[in-house]
Q: What sequence folds into this?
């Protein structure tokens, strides 16, 4: 056994190196500076198995380039003084970053032992490292340690001494840089004269790699030596060749390869961990957040969501419709048929409650599928990417980068979305975002779309129509926000600083909980506000009763229904506003339904169910769609879709805007402005579409 | 007569419910969406962004 064994302790800053150093050496330490620089050089001593052991604590560094004094000192020590063993302290909770230094130590050809420190922290963060496997992959003995508790330190010392004395082999695995680079390394190695090595203390492969990296320290040392010109010329040619082939400096390409090696080693030995998910996430994000492909991918995913919302949910929706129809018949049978125009209990339940609430509840499956799809996108981490991808576009439009996050929340409900604009520090940016959030199609708009789109579009165009209305809302929001930022809300915008959390596989439990929470709210809303609104609308659609002689003159139940409705409050209000809404292709029934939707958007569907009297039909849903088709053209349908999307935000939205903006001015500007834009859009759409 | 009372009460209850809801929202007492529940992750004060 050698009389004195020299151990060098290398590691990243904050890897726990000093703690390990203190644990190994105890109080026997000596502190000085490295020659010529003020970098601290700490040495400790101890005796083991009859040998004197010197432990040198190298400065904490992330790599062994020659960019900083610390790095140069550490590197020179390792190359010039050639310790018997290098103990590389690696923070297990930051494995990938820490292994970069390890790889550089491996390249130096020194015997290395890894002290895998902070394994307790790593474990608490869900990092599970297969130590024997990682050790085999790197060709280096690894000892798990917890420096703060002195765990594993004894074993680490024994392993290090075993390597230093040769009783245990540390043979670092070679790092391969790929065919292109390896060929250039070989060329430089060929230019070395084996009989007269230029820098004999340096491993020749390491020297060749450093020449490719244009390492200033190595190049400067070589320049002073006779016979180095040929080597430097060869290196320059290789660098030029690699720059041409890769489009980057060899230094960057080599660093990428090292990270690739580390990434591969981690994927092999770090099982289902946060670290691993980061690596996988990076790979997925190359595609998902791609500068060009990012937005098309987002649009395709959205199309998939809407396709599912229509087709996966169509059969359950029909079952609910049939069930409600059957329920209406049963109640009629029990309570007896009521005459039209009379405010009977049968009419209240069948025409009002089943017609109104039932028309909303048949869309529960669509809502559930939509919320499930949104839950998958959110739980997997994709929604953060969607915001990231949209940020590029939005920033080009002069908008605040963080605005897209509240906008995404707006797909659920505008109220929480407007609250979430608090994340935007800039008041002007916040107000702008608040103004346009109602253009995100919220969950309450879905039943309107799900009623109108199948009524007016052929099956093959339905998913595309739904996709279009959502995308149109987003684009219109961006355009209006741009307009506001250029006029009433002028000011600077700030870039989005956003971390992309690693992708996760959504858990079944998580998805079920998220879908259930939101679907239950939909059911609850149908059972409270929609139920109450339906009762009132039913009353307004049946009162006051028409003169008995006009009712008696009606030839059919449908005609009698029309007579009652025309004479009712709904009919009278509807006729009063008809001149205003007729240019949009709406009649008085659709007009009043759209006014009712200001209370809550689903009321539109409820009121359509009531005014078309579908409470007693065999299939509520198909009956209602059939009546919509019979009474309105496709152009009217398109105008209704646009009006429902843009105009007249619901009362809850107006209220929250007033509260969050601190004034009625913004709330009324939002309501009035969007209603005006919605009116214009619907007008243009109807006038153009009805002429095609 | 009983039927008329039931229908009248239903209409009155619905009117009171809707009226109260609109009043509370516009007066700023409860500026929430109409489906607000304690489970809602976006409920005021619970935004975790």
A:
């Amino acid at each position: 056994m050698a009389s004195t064994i020299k151990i060098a302790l290398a590691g990243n800053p904050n890897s726990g190196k000093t703690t390990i150093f203190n644990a190994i050496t105890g109080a026997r330490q000596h502190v000085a500076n490295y020659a010529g620089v003020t970098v601290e050089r700490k040495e400790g001593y101890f005796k083991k198995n009859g040998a004197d052991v010197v432990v040198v604590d190298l400065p904490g560094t992330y790599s062994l380039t020659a960019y900083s004094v610390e790095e140069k000192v550490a590197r020179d020590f390792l190359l010039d003084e050639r310790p018997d063993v290098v103990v590389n302290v690696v923070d297990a909770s930051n494995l990938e970053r820490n292994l970069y230094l390890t790889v550089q130590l491996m390249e130096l050809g020194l015997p290395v032992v890894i002290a895998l420190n902070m394994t307790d922290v790593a474990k608490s963060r869900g990092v599970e490292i297969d130590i024997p496997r990682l050790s085999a992959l790197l060709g280096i003995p690894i000892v798990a340690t917890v420096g703060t508790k002195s765990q594993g330190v004894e074993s680490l010392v024994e392993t290090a001494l075993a390597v230093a004395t040769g009783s245990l082999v540390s043979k670092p695995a070679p790092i391969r840089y790929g065919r292109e680079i390896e060929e250039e390394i070989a060329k430089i190695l060929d230019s070395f004269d084996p009989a007269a090595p230029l820098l004999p203390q340096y491993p020749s492969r390491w020297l060749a790699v450093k020449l490719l990296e244009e390492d200033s320290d190595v190049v400067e040392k070589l320049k002073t030596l006779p016979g180095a010109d040929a080597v430097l010329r060869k290196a320059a040619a290789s660098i030029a060749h690699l720059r041409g082939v890769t489009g980057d400096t060899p230094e960057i390409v080599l660093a990428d390869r090292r990270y690739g090696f580390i990434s591969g080693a981690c994927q092999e030995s770090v099982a289902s961990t946060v670290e691993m998910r980061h690596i996988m996430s990076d790979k997925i994000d190359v595609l998902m957040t791609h500068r060009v492909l990012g937005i098309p991918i987002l649009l395709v995913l959205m199309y998939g969501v809407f396709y599912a919302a229509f087709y996966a949910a169509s059969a359950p929706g029909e079952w609910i419709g049939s069930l409600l129809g059957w329920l209406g018949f049963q109640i009629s049978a029990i309570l007896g048929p009521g005459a039209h125009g009379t405010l009977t209990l049968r009419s209240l339940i069948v025409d009002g409650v089943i017609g109104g609430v039932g028309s909303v509840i048949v869309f529960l499956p669509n809502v559930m599928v939509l919320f499930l799809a949104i839950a998958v996108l959110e739980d997997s981490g994709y929604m953060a990417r969607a915001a990231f991808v949209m940020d590029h576009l939005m920033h080009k439009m002069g908008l605040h980068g963080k605005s897209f996050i509240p906008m995404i929340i707006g797909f659920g409900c505008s109220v929480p979305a407007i609250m979430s604009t608090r994340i935007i520090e800039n008041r002007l940016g916040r107000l702008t975002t608040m103004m346009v959030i109602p253009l995100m199609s919220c969950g309450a708009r879905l039943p309107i779309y799900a009623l109108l789109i199948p009524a007016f579009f052929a099956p093959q165009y339905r998913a595309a129509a739904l996709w279009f209305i959502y995308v149109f809302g987003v684009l219109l929001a961006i355009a209006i926000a741009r307009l506001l930022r250029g006029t009433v809300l002028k000011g600077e915008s700030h870039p989005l600083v956003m971390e992309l959390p690693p992708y996760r596989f959504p858990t079944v439990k998580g998805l079920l909980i998220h879908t259930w929470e939101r679907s239950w709210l939909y059911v609850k809303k149908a059972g409270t506000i929609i139920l109450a609104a339906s009762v009132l609308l039913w009353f307004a659609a049946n009162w006051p009763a028409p003169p008995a002689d006009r009712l008696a003159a009606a030839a059919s139940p449908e005609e009698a229904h029309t007579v009652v409705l025309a004479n009712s409050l709904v009919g009278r209000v509807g006729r009063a506003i008809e001149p205003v809404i007729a240019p949009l292709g709406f009649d008085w029934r659709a007009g009043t339904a759209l006014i009712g939707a200001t209370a809550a958007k689903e009321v539109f569907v409820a009121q359509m169910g009531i005014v078309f009297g579908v409470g007693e039909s065999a299939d509520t849903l198909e009956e209602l769609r059939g009546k919509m088709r019979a009474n309105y053209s496709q152009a009217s349908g398109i105008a209704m879709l646009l009006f429902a999307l843009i105009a007249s935000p619901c009362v809850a939205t107006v209220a929250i805007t007033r509260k969050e903006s601190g004034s009625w001015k913004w709330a009324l500007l939002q309501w009035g402005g969007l209603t005006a834009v919605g009116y214009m859009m619907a007008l243009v759409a109807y006038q153009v579409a009805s002429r095609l | 007569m009983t039927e008329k009372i039931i229908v009248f009460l239903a209409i009155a209850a619905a009117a009171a419910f809707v009226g109260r809801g609109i009043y509370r929202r516009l007066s700023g007492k409860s500026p929430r969406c109409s489906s607000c529940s304690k489970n809602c992750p976006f409920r005021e004060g619970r935004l975790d962004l």
Summary: The interface with chain B takes residues 343-345, 348, 405, 409, 412-417, 419-420, 422-423, 517, 520-522, 524-525, 528-529, 531-536, 539, 599-600, 650-652, 654-656, 658-659 of chain A (CB under 8 Å).
